[in-house]
Structures are given as C-alpha cells and as structure tokens.
Amino acid sequence: MNEPDDPLATALFGELFMADQLARSRLSRALPKGMELSHFSVLNHLARVNAERTPAQLARSFHLTRGAMTNTLNKLEVAGYIHVRPDWDDARRKQVAISPAGLRARDAAISEIGPILQDVVSTIGAEKVRLALRVLRDLRTRLEQES
User: What is this structure's pTM?
Assistant: First the structure.
C-alpha cells in the first residue's frame, strides 16, 4: 500500500490539476464572447448525444449538483442556446434540447478552440495522446467508483 505522501501520486495529481487549470484558462479565452467553458461543455454534450436530457441527467453526466446545472441551463436558455420544455409523461420533470442557435454557438466555439486542441495533440504526438487517454480514462473510472 502506498504511503499518504507518495511522491508519485502527488506528482500525478499535481500535473493533472495544473494541466486542467492551464487548459481551462486557454480555452476560456478562445471561446466566443459571453460563452463560458461550462456552457460550451453542455452544448457540446447535447450536440453529441443529439437527444433531449433532463437537468438531473445532465447534472449526473457532469458530476455537478442539480443547482449548479440549473444555473448553467438558465444562462443557456436566456441566451437562446437551449430549449427547456415540460416532460409530457411527468409534469415534475423538464426536458432540455439544444436549439439551432445553440448548435451555431457550439460550432463557433469548436472553430475557435479546435486549432488550439489540434496544436497540442500535434506537438505532443498522437501516440502519446492515445497512451495518456487510456491512463486518464482508467483514472476517471476509478474516481467515479469512489463517488
């Protein structure tokens, strides 16, 4: 068993936290005016799944509280990027879908951050990125089990 002050674990999480901070900062600056990284993440998710989701499903997908997700969804709805409607089968629930304006905003964001992401992958090398993805997925899976 590893000691609580295991330098390997400390280095791993230190690098993860620093890379996360740097990536968020760089991508946030590149997003279209008024769009936050959390907004882009939700729009990108809805565009990829191409289906409605409940706020609770979205909160679970992003490992957020319902309140935090509701705050993000309210901002996206005011901007016209999503449609929120009552669930026809259960009036207590809502369904969220990306709007045509939301798709355009997401595509605009992709066009701005895409070159940044591609540059990072090109510089590091696709094979190293594939290896890192395996490790990061294993790490995420392990951390999700403890949630």
Answer: 0.84
